[in-house]
Protein: Extended synaptotagmin-like protein 1b
Organism: Nothobranchius furzeri
Amino acid sequence: MSDNSELSSLKGAESPGVSGPEEKTPMIVVRAEPTKPRGISAVAVLWTFGKCLGALLPVYLAGYYRVSTSLLVCGMMVYTGWKHAREAKEERLRSAMQLLDNEEECAYTNVSKIKRDLPAWVNFPDVEKVEWLNKVLQQVWPFVGQYMERLLVETIAPSLRASSSHLQTLSFTKVNMGDKAMKVVGIKAHTENDKGQVLLDLYIRVISNPVTFRMFVCPQLHGMMRVILEPLIGDVPIVGAVTMFFIRRPKLDINWTGLTNLLDIPGLNVMSDSMIMDAIASFLVLPNRLVVPLVPGLRVAHLRCPLPRGVVRIHLLEAQGLAAKDNYVKGVMAGLSDPYAILRVGPQTFTSKHIDNTDAPKWEEVYEVIVHEVPGQELEVEVYDKDTDKDDFLGRTKLDLGIVKKSIIVDEWFTLKDTPTGRVHFKLEWLALLPNTERLEQVLKRNEGITSKASTPPSSAILVVYLDKAEALPMKKGNKEPNPLVQISVHDITRDSKTCYTTVNPEWEEAFTFFVQDPHKQDIKIQVKDADRVQTLGSLTIPLSRMLGNANLSLDQWFQLENSGSASRIYVNTVLRVLWLDEDRVQSDVSSNLAAGLSKQLVHQTSPHSSFATEGLLRIHLLAGQNLVPKDNMMGGMVKGKSDPYVKINIGGETFTSQVIKGNLNPTWNEMYEVVLTQLPGQDLHLEVFDKDMDMKDDFMGRLKISLKDIITSQYIDQWYNLSDVKSGRVHLVLDWVPTSSESDGLDQVSVNKAVSSAALLFVYVEQADGLPVSLGKDPKVGAEIKLGDVSRKTTVCDRTTSPSWNEAFCFRVRDPRKEILSVKVGGLSGTERCLLSHKPTLITGELLSEPELVLDQWFHLDGASPESQILLRAELKFGQSEFDTFPSIYQHPSGSQALLRYKDLFITGNENVLNLLCEVHIDLNEYLIVMCMSVNND
């Protein structure tokens, strides 16, 4: 029998889990035979030699032709960048494919982890999963590939060739979309818009395996696509057309293959990817739309280029608290910044002027943006610090313009994100589009006041020019058919249409939008030119005043071209709309809210629970320890060392940690802690002693537990406590329960010892607020923050209301009521932005000293809010009444060499005789006692 067959027969005996407990595993003897050396292959040797020669050949050629070393270094750098870009793209593709294959497991893991950290008031948006639609897409995906092939060959390829002379030979010969269909991650339906349409937001993701084109690979695309089903008709198929577009550019990752791998070289990859994305955006990203008619004879021009929803006038006013980026001497000297802002709404981008050397710039600039879709389009703002090299980032924020449409006017401070500090002040106005001239003169008069403040005059109207087609254009020189394009100018703004090649009957089907300052004085100038922009094929001028007398402020007709052929004409549809700020609607909303607030009957005082303001103060004096267990042993425990002890005290949900005493088994801490506690039964004081270690877990040195009930019963305990769970050790504690009283005589007993932080307790009961202003068009999600000194407490956040009710109590320790200031700040959460409303009443706690029973219970006006905004709260001051504050006592240290003097919560370490002398001579002189004690410590 061969060795292999012998090993096979013994394979079942190798597993100890199969054999019984009495069976012995047989020993397997494996004979190791020496491996026979292989013969040297001549082909392998020649192949290795060829590779070495091929690697050295470029070096030889570079030397032979005396190529500069810098060129070689440059080539190596280009290759390294290309290799890095390729590997990064491949890694992203692998990650996306792994996520797609294990989507359910990854989603469950991530969501489970996130949900544990979400606050209770966070609600998920109304985005629905549509797995049934994904199953349908999987079935029809091959046919989608056929449509995409026609789209790429017939639409995108000509557009790319026309965009650059270097791409004249680019073409798509074969398209394969892969077998993994596009996935719709979620879908959201909007019902608040026009009833004659169905508006859907589809969150899509395409991660194909891979999608291979002859020229490039496009494996990843994700974004939010808006789908509009309109018009709705009374016949099958009910929907007249489907309009699709991306509100924001989708994220696209292009992976080039074949010879086009060279386009992954850094610099070229940005240019190539952006050109592809620009081509896609030219027909699928706002303001461009893809319209698919479902019924014959439907005019899709108004669907492809509809009128905007409105115009938003943006007042960029100022900023505050921006981060300082211009530091000097490598950050040793802090400077300021030279801030400027970049504002984006879709493809519209504006850049403000930069203000030198300030963290609170005042821009006072006005911009106007056209809004095509709400909800959906957002105002995106980024703030930068202007530098000579690279500008520093100072923060960003964004706002859904649908909120502006609902509120008409939004005048708010917006906190910047992705930065530790800074906020920006905007005033946003929604300008509706009026189809008549009834309010035109009123708009022009109102704009005169804005013109004096703004650098550019505001607009009174917008003009939409729909360029359809032309007929019978003249031939260009040489009797050749022209490549016509159109230049449309209004005032000093000129827009160019696309070029139609080799035709005298071009069809452009494009729309252009212009802002108009005064339609009585401005004209539309249209010039039809050849692609070289030298030869003019015709021109046309249309005064805007001609449109003012027409119904619906529009012109939709053929126009005869001037300076052209006798039959040359152009079809243009022009629409004018007056921009109207409906301030009357804003005022009526405010008046109705004010009337509703005044008519409501408000309670006069709070109604707290009977347990309110019944807490007491526990002072814990941690003095010393004795005979603690040594933990820092050496030589495996043969040589006894010492310890570095510290103490942790836990009571009432608070934890206190003492300082570490190095190398001492009889430490002296002399520390005091204060905690506010209710007198509920079952509360205990837990104390644990540890040895501090730098390189490992701290060693346990003992614990003890003291019942709070025993402390309250005794009022005052001065005792050594033995530690449990260890061989030896005890801790010296002084526990002083300080009940509270509303007698103002307690002010005379305010301690002069800086170590004692609490002479009184301030109890605050926040019941409700009323008349809060609407924020960003919605009732705010409101919470209150109560702050005394450096200590702040926050209420829960009430769901959307202008009259929130909290009914929450808080307690603060007060050192000197004559100086402390209590502030109450009301903040709101509206939409996706958190806005600080700056509504804040302030109360000096010394005002309570003149009130009966040291209580204020009333409505307080909120500064910085509307006139009717107020908050109802109760503030009650109580002084600590400790019977042991005035009795000095001396504690002998275990070593016998020192003693501790306690007087009015003042602990002094020194010689026992000296401390006795101080106690006898200066028993009634607080100030001199402190001076003498300082002198003793100094000596």
Q: What stands out?
A: The first helix runs from residue 3 to 9. The mean pLDDT is 76. DSSP finds 14 helices and 45 strands in the chain.
